[in-house]
Amino acid sequence: MTATESPTPYRHDAALRARITANLAAHERHVIEGPARRAAVALLLAPIDGVTHYAFTQRAWTLRRGAGQYALPGGGVDAGEDAVDAARRELHEEIGVLLDRSATLGCLDDFSTRTDHVVTPVVLWSDEPVALAPAPDEVHEAWLVPLAELDHPDAPHAQAHPSGGATILRMPVLGEWINPPTAAFLLQLRDVAVHGRTTRVHAVGQPDWTAR
Questions:
Q1: What is the radius of gyration, based on Cα positions, of the chain?
Q2: Domain span at 81
Q3: What is the pLDDT of residues 96-127, one digit of tens each?
Q4: How many domains, the chain?
């Protein structure tokens, strides 16, 4: 595929669901043990006109931390929850999509952020189209983005860390290049979940401003 060609859309069907489920089941997750502030993000896959999209947001500008940042629906794991329940709850609270546990296809690698959270990405599937209803106190805007955009020929885009740390890997979303940690989750969604590749992201660089 050349840079001028559009990636092939993913048909939202039972075959894709089975393929992603099998790839996640075969993936030996990088798990971060020990005490930490736990969080989860939801990688929701849902159809528009039979084509697979994923949910993506921009955080509210009024938030104390991460205001205006692009992100996946997610947040802290509450007492009595696991990562799956936390991702499902945050998905409902932030963009109004309610799914039960049977929608869970699996999880990607734990990721330690600059805010000292250990985040577990949870892949969720909806057979039916979803209507996004962003909660204004948490989400400025929300979109459904074609999954195939992650197959951009230049992705991931490697950028030297301005402070001399590990290389930053960025992923394309709606014409923008998104930074880690969100880009790390999207890279694994593409490589591990969709294509069955063993791609690790726990050592990729994160911009200094993500600690704010």
A1: 16
A2: 14-211
A3: 999 999 999 999 999 999 888 999 999 999 99
A4: 1
